[in-house]
Amino acid sequence: MNVKDSEHIIAELSDEYEITSDKSQADLMIINTCSVREKPVNKLFSEIGVLKKYKKPSAKLGICGCSASYLGQELMKNSAVDFVVGARNVSRIKEAILTNGVFTDIDYDDTTYIFKQYRQNKFKDFVNIMIGCDKECTYCIVPKTRGKELSIPLDIIIKTISDLVDDGVKEVTLLGQNVNNYGRRFSISHPKVNFTKLLQEVSKIDNLERIRFTSPHPLHADDEFLEEFANNPKICKYIHFPLQSGSNKILKLMKRGYTKEWFLDRVAKLRQIKDVTISTDVIVGFPYEEEEDFADTLDVVQKAGFEQMFSFVYSPRPLTKAQEYPLVDKQVAKNRLYRLQELQKEIMLSKTQDQIGKRHKVLFERYHQRKLFGKSDNFYSVEVQSDVDLSGQIADVMIVDARHSTLIGKI
Ligand code: SF4
C-alpha cells in the first residue's frame, strides 16, 4: 500500500515536479513511512538526518504515510520538516506543500477521489479497492493510522483498471487491508457488492490478463470467495494468507477472530487448487506466548507448507492494546524466530525443487543480457534465456532448474 501511496504522490505532483536522483538538486523531498514495526520508525529519523545534509535552503521536506499519521505535529518539531501528510490524506499532498500543513485526519475520505496515474512497471499496477481497517488486532497500529474501513465504489475501480489496460497493463493487484471484506461500507450510496462480485466484474475487463489481490483475511475466507479464487481463470493462483500465530490462545489474545483449526481447514481447501502457492506472516514472541503455543505455530507451518513466509519478533506499537501486555524474554523470542525460520527454509527448499518439471504461465517484465525476467502465475520469480525481448508477453515456460527461490525455465 505504501508503494501505491508513493506512486499516487508522484502522479499528483507530476505536473509541477520531475524526479531527480541528485538529492542536492531536489526542490522537494518526501519520505513515505511505515509504522507496522518499530524499525521503520527509527529509520525515519535517521533518514531525516541524511536528507537534512543535502537539503537546499529553498527546498521542502515532507513526511508522509503511517508514521506521519500518528506522529503528526510532533514531526514538525524537527527543523528540517516542512509538512506532514498521513496515510489517509494522500490526495491533499499539494495543499500540504503549499501551506506547510499537517494533514493527519484518519476520518478523511478520498474513496471517490480519482488519482492521476503513475507506475514504475509498464505491465502491471496496484489498484486500491478500499482504505482503512475495521479490525482491532491487538498488536496492530494500522486502524489508528489508516482509519475506518471504506470501500471504493465499483465503477471507479472498473474505470481505473480499464484505463490502465488501455495503457498496456496486463496484470493488476487489488489492494486493501482486508480485501475479502470489500463492500462492508461505502461512503456514498452504493449497490451491495462483495469481494467475489468485484472479482467477477474486474475479470470481465477485456485484455486484462491477470488479477492478484492482497491481503485477504483468513476470517473472511468463506467458500464463495475460495471457489471464485479457484475457478476464475484470470485470478493468479497465489494467495497471501496471514497466520500470525498457530496457537488458539495467542490468536484470541491477538483478536484475530479465527482458530488454528479454521485456518488449516481453509488451507486444505486452497491446496486442492492445482499449483497454488501460499505465503504468510508470523509474529513470534507475542506476549504470553509459551513453548506449547510456539509448538502450535510450528505445527501449522509444517502442515500448511507455505511457499513463502514473512516472520518477525513481536514489537510493541503505540496506540495498540497489546503494548500493555508483558513482553516475552528477548532471547527466547529470538531463538523461536530462528527455529521457525530454519523450518521454513527446509519447506521452501523442497517446495521450490518441486517446481522443476512443471509448466507455468509467466508474464515477462524485463529483458537484460539476453535473459527474460518475470513472475509465474503462482508468483515465483522466473528467469529464461532468450534471443528476443518478450517483455509484456505471457508465455508457457517449462521449469528446468531452481536457484534459491528463483526458477529457471525454457519457453
Ligand atoms: S486486519 Fe488486523 S493486522 Fe490487518 S491491518 Fe487490520 S488490524 Fe492490522
In short:
With 411 residues, the protein is α/β, with parallel strands linked by helices.
Report low-confidence residues grouped into runs of 5 or more.
none
Write the CATH architecture name of the largest domain: 2-Layer Sandwich
Overall number of structural domains: 4
Q: Walk across the major sheet and give the strand order.
A: 13-14-15-17-16
Strand content: 15-25%
CATH class category name of the largest domain: Alpha Beta
Give me the oligomer status.
Answer: single chain
The number of E-state strands comes to 17
Average pLDDT, all residues: 97
Specify the structural class. alpha/beta
* Tally of alpha and pi helices: 12
Determine the N-to-C terminus distance: 33 Å
Strand count, sense and barrel status of the largest sheet are: 5 strands, mixed, barrel
CATH topology of the largest domain: Transcription Regulator spoIIAA
Which kinds of small molecule does this entry bind, naming each only once?
A: iron/sulfur cluster
Helix content: 25-40%
Radius of gyration: 22 Å
Question: H/E element string?
Answer: HEHEHEHEEEHEHEHEHEHHEHEHEEEEE
Q: Can you tell me the overall shape?
A: globular
